[in-house]
Every structure is written in structure tokens, then in C-alpha cells.
Amino acid sequence: MRRPASWTRLFPLAAMALSLALAADRPPRIWILPFEHLQPDPPLDYLREALPALLAVAVSRSEGYTLVDRQHLDHLLAEQSLTLEGLTSSETRLRIGGLLGANMMISGSFVRHGEELLIGMSASDLETGIISATAEGRGPVSQPGQLVNKLYRQLARDLDQRLPVLAPDQIDEAPAGNLHFVKGLGHFYSARYSQALAEFILASGDKALSGLSRLWLANAYMAQRQYSHAYLELIRPADGALTSPLEKEIAARKRECEQRLSPEDVKTIRQLAVHPAPPK
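RE: above sequence
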């Protein structure tokens, strides 16, 4: 029996409604791009990836939002025969953002002027392709985290909470001031885990960052599925006191590693942490 024409028209509408309902159930996804360095200044090149990495760390700790995964992005760009450097046009960014399932995109640029760092940031709605908010400011070169924190909060305020609101200490100036730690974050969020490990190892020499650096060493090992190495970093005693949020994060990573390792491996690693093997 032939179906009425009205039925045929209903099917696409139902599919569209279902798609919109599913999208509404997903948490908003944010895509943070590498920042543009506006003039050659090799000592500051690391900020291209370090500044968005500071943002990514803070946003990732906010409930109800997700970040675009760099490995997913790299895989998609390879499929499209593109590179991050090739995402120069707004049309290309809009298309890639849609394929990534992102709702908002944060981009930025920076340049050094004397002893000051000038940073500009913008947030774009990837569903409409419109730049929804912009912010710019200047601050000491030695305190990039403080300036990024301030400008991000301005974007979030102007967008009326369409970006996650950060707690006052979510971009901490102490680790942001450690060159090796910030470089490590940049490598980590660019999926260069071996380089990230090297920088976090150097950063762990700073006693004030001992616990935090070991957490990020573990994160880099876990990203490479090296759970034994990650677990060893997590159970080593820190040189100083840990904040409550950091303790919770370390405990969560420990549990994840323990689920991946055998009870025998967990026991062996714990013994190794208490009685490390002598150097050869």
C-alpha cells in the first residue's frame, strides 16, 4: 500500500527533531585553538600552545562542559588533508568545528611590547559562525596566567554564562610562572606526550610544584597507556602539602590506574615507591 505524501514529509522532520534532541542532551563542547604569535620572538613561541593549555586545564575542571580532544582533532584534520596552520579561514574553522561537535571556539593572539604581553581573545559561536565576544588586555610577561584568566572571565561574562565560569584559583599563577610546567602543558594538549614528560620532569624539581608536576607526569603516561609509570608517580610522596582539589584528582587517577593494573603489579609498584631500586 502506498503511504500518504504527508507521512513521507514527516520522516525527515522526525529525524531532525531527534538529532536536535540528542544534541541538546550533550554537554556544550569547547574548542580552544593555538594562539597566534603576531611577531617573531622565539623566547615566547611556547605561549602559542601554553596559553590555550592554561585555559584548557581550567575549563576541563568545570562541570557540564567538555573540550575537543586533540587526538580527535588531529585525526579529523588528517582525514580532511588539513593542518592546524591551515585553519585560517572562518569557513574552514566553522566546518571543522561542526564535524568536531563543538559549540564554541576560543581563539587568541599575543605580542610582546617591552616588558608587557598584549593578548587578544575571542569566542565564536560555531552554530552561527558569529564572533560572539572579544577581549584584550596587557600585563607583565612574567604573569601570562593572570592576564589569560582576566580576559577569559570577560568573555564568559559577556556571553552570559555560555562559557563555564571559573573558580578564582582555576588558573593558578604559581605553575603558570614555571617555564617548564607551562611548556609541558602546551606539549600535553598538543598530544606530544614525550616532550610533555621531559618538561614536567624538569618542573618537578620545583618543590612548590612537586605534587602538581607528578600529577601531570601521570597524565602524560596515562595518555600513552603506560599505567605502571603513571601509578608510580601518583603514589610517590610529594615534597609539600597538597591542596584538597589536587588530592582528589590524584586519588581519582590512582583508582583509574588500579583498575588497569593487576593486583600483583599494584603491589610491586607500591614496594618500588617505598624502596626504589639503586641506580646502576
